[in-house]
Amino acid sequence: MPGKAPKTNLSSRSPNSGRSLDVYGQAQALVQAAAPFISRFSRFDRKLGGQLKSALPSVMLNLAEGLRRVGGDRNHLITVALGSTDEVQSIFDVGRALGIVSAAEALTVHEPADRVCAMAQVPVPQGSRGRGREPAAAPASAASPGIDSAASI
Q1: What domains can you pick out in the chain, each with its CATH number?
Q2: pLDDT over 80 (residue 5)
Q3: What distance in Å separates the CA atoms of residue 80 and residue 91, rounded to the nearest whole number?
Q4: What is the value of pTM for the model shown?
Q5: 142 vs 136: CA distance, rounded Å
Q6: What is the distance between the terminal CA atoms of the chain, rounded to a whole angstrom?
Q7: Rounded to whole angstroms, how far apart are CA atoms 33 and 107?
Q8: Dihedral of CA 37/39/44/49: which sign?
Q9: pLDDT tens digits, residue range 43-56?
Q10: CA 131, 135, 60, 96 torsion: positive or negative?
């Protein structure tokens, strides 16, 4: 019929889609492992639960978009996804410290998060400086006597 869009199978994935990559599957495993804890974190601290609820979709959404992009956009979006992954891990570290989750429960989240971080590394060009890049080494005169500058980072 003219004017009607053909029905498509939304569950099928294009081979060029970032969603077909293993890293996306690991991000999905992270979300599935952490999502059941949102209500527990929210009962303890509404803001902490809200941060977890916000960070989880950010991992998958930014990763999916970044894997489809090229150039700086790609690196930026993957970096945001990795930052959200680190945020989820930090929330579970706080949860362990405060007795909200056990070490075993935190591990069920840390394992897929570690895999996402290992699989989605963003290359850092040699000698680059700036936002989202490795910090430049401090000049020798900037280090405080008796303090290992690398250890203080």
Answers
A1: 18-119 (1.20.1440.60)
A2: no
A3: 16
A4: 0.69
A5: 12
A6: 64
A7: 10
A8: positive
A9: 999 999 999 999 99
A10: negative
Q: Give the integer Cα–Cα distance in Å for 64 and 18.
A: 6
User: What interhelical angle do 22-34 and 46-68 show, nearest 10?
Assistant: 170
Amino acid identity of residue 101, one-letter, is V
- DSSP for 102-147, written as a single string: -HHHHHHHHHHHHHHHHHSPPP--TT--STTSPPPPPPGGGSPTT-
Amino acid at 25: G
pLDDT surpassing 50 at residue 146: no
Calculate the alpha carbon distances from 27 to 109, 147, 149 in Å. 10, 38, 34
CA distance 92 to 69: 30
Region 87-106: what's the mean pLDDT?
97
Phi, psi angle pair for 92, to nearest 5°: -70, -30
What gap in Å lies between CA 120 and CA 73, rounded to an integer? 14
Of 86, 85, 76, 94, nearest in space to 132 by CA: 76
How many Cα atoms sit within 13 Å of 26 on the Cβ side? Answer: 18
DSSP 8-state secondary structure symbol assigned to residue 6: P
Q: How many CB atoms lie within 10 A of CB 84?
A: 24
d(CA 80, CA 74): 10
